[in-house]
Amino acid sequence: MCLTSQIQRERERERERMEKENSNASAEVMRNKQVIYREKVQGSLKETHLEVRTSSERPKADKDSGAIMVKNLYLACDPYNLHLIKFSTQLGSTVSGYGVARVLESGHPNFKKGDLVLGLTRWEEYSLITAPKTCFKIEHTDVPLSYYTGLLGMPGLTAYAGFFEVCSPKKGDTVFISAASGAVGQLVGQFAKLFGCYVVGSAGSKEKVDLLKNKFGFDDAFNYKEELDLDAALK
């Protein structure tokens, strides 16, 4: 399947889903499914650290409150979410993260009902965003909205700015990327390949190394956990 056909199919699925959501809006109004941080994380995040609850109360954005109430459509699930959970989320509260949402109620002059936004929200069906300055309107909807949680969202912008604005690469340069299988690293690698660079990445498992070399197009990759001398590995 070509990329254009895939994008068209994803957009069609999004339209069908939104039409279904609109028709069921009255039935959903009293339900808000949420992902709650229930148990303190010591090491790796496990399923038992989180809990899905359904609240009977939906948030509301009062007129002139400066807040917006949104229905979350897509939520990013990336490594940085663990940092947010560990250090910025209180036990018993809803997990936060970046996502794509549709405005249902607005008490802010810059947003109106129906606007699509990208920004910091919460892992729940409906969220009250009291500081909409963290949100940006999505003006271009000719691509699947899910792309705004990755390539066209925070990971993509970070990768683009870091590579092109900070790194200032030249065609033919050798580019090394640590944490190369992460949300940002994999995009930096693909930008570098498109730019004509020789790309090497490091990751923490054999599976991730295989992913870099066989799916993301890196010229070479290695597992840093298996290397006794990183300087030698980079040579």
Automatic annotation (TrEMBL):
InterPro entries in alphabetical order: ADH-like_C, ADH_N_2, GroES-like_sf, MDR_fam, NAD(P)-bd_dom_sf
Disordered: region residues: 1-27
Occurrences of domain Alcohol dehydrogenase-like C-terminal (ranges): 183-235
Residue ranges annotated for the Oxidoreductase N-terminal domain, each copy included: 33-135
GO molecular function: 2-alkenal reductase [NAD(P)H] activity
Cross-referenced Gene3D superfamilies: Medium-chain alcohol dehydrogenases, catalytic domain (3.90.180.10), NAD(P)-binding Rossmann-like Domain (3.40.50.720)
Protein name: Oxidoreductase N-terminal domain-containing protein
